[in-house]
Amino acid sequence: MGILSSAVSITRYRVEGKIEGSATEMVARGLKKNIIPDIDEDAVEKAAGWTSFESPFQPQFEVSNFVFGNLFIFSLRVDRKSIPSKLLKKHLTLETSKRLAKTSRRFLAKDEKQALKDKVTAELAVRVPSTPNVYDLLWDFEKSSVCFFSNLRSANEELETLFKRSFSLALIRLFPYTAADLQAGLTDQERDVLLGLSPTHFSN
Amino acid sequence: MLDLSVAYSRYRFLGDEFLTWLWYLIETNQDAFRSVDPDCTALEIGNRVVLENRKGKSIERITIKGDDAGLEEGKMALKKGALVTELAMVFKTGEHEWWFSIKGESLNLSNLRAPGPTLPQSPEEMEPFLLDKTQQFYKLIDFIEKMYKFFIKERISKSWSSKTTPALKKWVRLVE
Question: What angle do CA B35, B41, B43 make, to 5 degrees?
């Protein structure tokens, strides 16, 4: 459910940190450096990176692709290869039989079994195409505000890690405590009161 | 600032109290919404309310959904000590409506249907579309953030225990 969807989910963030120089150039550098890699020909099972909002499967990061008015809009893409367990079992059984026949043994050691499983998984990962998941992001630079168009925990965790690595800026998720601490304009004294709050019971 | 994962769990009750307080305001004081956003003509309960009662050893969860859902069951749950943990609402201005759900523990928005232009038909229409759509998203987000600030200021003030809590208790008590 991205910006263009009729119904969207939004997780809100506050951006913390300072930027030296041009924000647009800094963002362009961070996006290009962490663009989603193509893993379809590799043994890698998962990849996360930035992609362009308008062409998520052919990422390009020219200024016209991610600057809209005073907003930065781009997308997080997470590609995963899902190897069906039955497929893995089939290939692992065949490889195990071959290995046993070659070495004239009846059993493989635990370490050998794991090594063979890793090898088979890697070989299958090259042949299985990845499934992309795209999540849009809207960054209002002047407000230090980011809206991420997903509430999925895994997607939000990927976002927080990649954002920090790309722009050297921290994303602080706005939930009840952080929204109160960062956005309610509290004095130090009021923050102390906030820390000491405990639940109210409205029933009698 | 506190460790964020600790703070998330420790203060999730603030989000649940916020939603319960919003329901109270929706029924008793729509002027509060207009004081925060003069464009607001109404804030209404939508088609889904989730409540949780954590008073006992186990958590009791009550979900009320459907366009014609009666809220009596939810109010009875409030009377027994539950709080609202998820609330679908409709934010209305003179011309437009925003339908959305908000979760107490995270303040995340979901199923947000904001007004705005039709989907762009050409690349040239993309930028105006995005700017307009973003403005509509932020219209609601600004409203929610202002209401939450209003709530927090109230929550940490002395009037929370002397005025607001008794008023909320009275509202809950009057539930048939």
Answer: 85
Dig out the tokens for B26 from the structure: 């929706």
Q: Spell out the residues 6+ positions from residue B123 whose beta carbon is closer than 8 angstroms to its own.
A: A54
Query: Which of A9, A183, A174, A12 minimizes the C-alpha distance to B151?
Result: A183
CB pair distance less than 8 Å for A10 and B169: no
CB contact under 8 A, A176 and B15: yes
Q: pLDDT tens for residues A22-65? A: 999 999 999 999 999 988 888 888 999 999 998 899 888 887 78
Closest-CA distance, B97 to chain A, in angstroms, reads 13
Q: Under an 8 A CB cutoff, do A202 and B168 touch? A: yes
Question: For residue range B25-75, what is the model confidence (pLDDT) as tens digits?
Answer: 999 999 999 999 999 999 999 999 999 998 777 888 999 987 766 788 888
Q: Which of A8, A174, A197 sits opposite B112 (nearest CB)?
A: A8
Question: A16, A172 in Cβ contact below 8 A?
Answer: yes
Closest CA of chain A from B41, distance in Å: 22
- Among A3, A177, A202, select the one facing B8 at the smallest CB separation: A177
Cβ(B20)–Cβ(B27) below 8 Å: no
Calpha distance B93→B38 (Å, rounded): 9
